[in-house]
Amino acid sequence: MSRRTRRLPETALYVVLFLFFAVFLLYPLGFTLRHSLGLAGDPVANPLVQVFGNPLLRTSFLNSILIATATVILASAIAFALAWTLSRWRFAGKPVLTALLLAPILLPPFVAAIGLQQLFARFGAINLFLIHHGWMNPASPLDWLASGGVSAIVLLQVLHGYPVLFLTVSAAMTQVDPSLGESAASLGASRWREFRTITLPLVRPGWVAGAMVVWIGALTDLGTPLITGYSRVIPVQIFDSLNDLNSSSQGYALVAALLGLITLVFLATRRFATATVQSVPSRGSRPALPEAGLMRTIGIWGSVGLLVGISILPHLSVGLVAFSSHWFFSPLPDAWTLANFREVASHGLTASSVRNSFVYAGLSSLVDLGLGLGIGWLVSRRAGRMSGLLDTLAMLPLAVPGLVLAFGYFAGFEVSEKHHPRLDAWLDPRTNPTFLLVISYAVRRLPYMVRAAVAGFELMSPALEEASAMLGARPLRTFLRITIPLIGAHLIAGMILTFAFAMLEVSDSILLAQRDRFYPITKQIWQLMGRIDPGAPGVACALGLLSMGLLAGSLLVARRLVGKGSRSLVQA
Q: In CATH, what number is assigned to the domain containing residue 63?
């Protein structure tokens, strides 16, 4: 077999992968930008003029920036305090406490918003408890959430975002040589001066990376403001603009302004992502951390336990609503039942939403498996410019908000396919969103599978594949009989992660699913929370509880399969 013949499958793989990214990643983004800038032939006002010239849109834009910025500031304060404490002391139960701190990552703010309203509304469980004990005037209950406005969204985003920053900051702090702090202390520097002049410059790259993830997530989150009923934010305005895409360019302008803002912030923070001070690791072993002592250990456990308790309190409330048959004007449910879960299984729309989510997430994980295997093999075994470009494209969805990508799918395929009626039945999201939901889930979660596949290939010696080829085995036989079994655990872990996160995808589900028979779980939860039916919130919470359990169980299984390496998948 000639060298040219052997390279044909590799060339075909490159063509297929680049074509996929061109159609399902670059095209929807390019389509949105073309229309927002008036390059598609229709006159469109300047996006900045169109957005900031409208009082409602201007207020929504500023509110979104306020929410994202406040989230990063508050989450950073919590993360630095936690990372500083846990990296400086040794105490009993430290691994357990660290694991508990990461629990809110498993609990999406979209679901937590339901429980937060039940707890902190004007006549929620907290106020009713205080009224019942005579600690609050029933005529003027405290409005903890400011009627579900900015403060409620910021609280939920902070509780969900601080674990992400804690991961990046604590990882950076563990790399700081403790002798630097000891030297600073011996020269008379205070703890604050040591932190400001030594620790902070060294951990700044890790903090900036985590802060950008949290900032973009809070800026573009659609589910939380929809559940809390607060519409003066950009994601909700983009969602509301979908019905007027053919007559108004407002949606395109909003997406273009949002992408421009994210790009500017990213470029502005690049100079802060490089450490201005470098630490030279000590050649000897790192000194053991000092023992915290009984009182300090109790203080650490108490403060961190309180934080974790507050973080998961809304989700515990979701569980209480899911198992309650009646919870009205009382601190706790008056009666308990499993009827909400039976309703999920028996009701047509809720049962179909569960089936739909399993179908969409299952198919998307299979798509990710094929794409991840191809990209992982090229990146690990055929490293070069082309494979590097593929790897960059695969990671791009981490930087592009799901809201923007979903808008591009809806606008690009819904409008462009009007002239192709044969494709309308399966490609237009207004008719049948199945195909686009599967593709959008796959594109959004592809980075997890790619990183899992690359990790598996890098841990496997190429000598095994070379030995098989020398014994006369064809490449396909070698791939199926040697490569796949050896990296199988990583692939299964990647599929579990992509499946679980796809089940809880919010922006894609809410934007693309337009007909109730195609609703996935997250869209059905939102629909149930908007109903007047008194039993609807219980069924919505039952769906949310099932979703949280699925995500938590999936991550535990993935961690068991690949050990500590799964932590890197979650951080991807």
A: 1.10.3720.10
* Sign of the four-CA dihedral 323, 325, 328, 331: negative
> 80 lies in a domain?
yes
Does residue 195 lie within any of the structural domains?
A: yes
User: Using one digit for the tens of pLDDT, what is the confidence trace for 51-77?
Assistant: 777 888 889 999 999 999 999 999 999
Q: How many Å from the N-terminal Cα to the C-terminal Cα in the chain?
A: 40
* Angstrom distance (rounded) from CA 192 to CA 194: 5
Q: Which domain holds residue 179?
A: 49-110+157-275
User: Do residues 402 and 503 touch, judged by C-beta distance below 8 A?
Assistant: no
Structure tokens at 160: 């969900």
Helix-then-strand count for the chain, H and E: 28, 2
| Residue 313 β-bridge partners | none
Burial zone of 37 (CB within 10 Å; 0-12 exposed, 13-18 middle, 19+ buried): middle
CB 79 within 8 Å of CB 203: no
User: What are the structure tokens assigned to 64, written together?
Assistant: 């979104």
Question: What does the DSSP 8-state code read for residue 325?
Answer: E
Measured from the Cβ of residue 127, the count of other Cβ atoms closer than 10 Å reads 21
Under DSSP, is residue 142 helix (H, G, I), strand (E, B) or coil?
coil
- Asked whether residue 417 is assigned to any structural domain, the reply reads no
Number of domains comprising the chain: 1
Chain centre distance of CA 271: 25
Residue 173 domain-assigned (yes or no): yes
3-class state of residue 291 by DSSP: strand
- Helices 294-322 and 150-173: crossing angle, nearest 10°? 140
- Please tell me the pTM assigned to this model: 0.82
pLDDT in tens, 445-472: 998 888 888 888 887 777 777 787 777 7
Please give the structure tokens belonging to residue 415.
């409008």
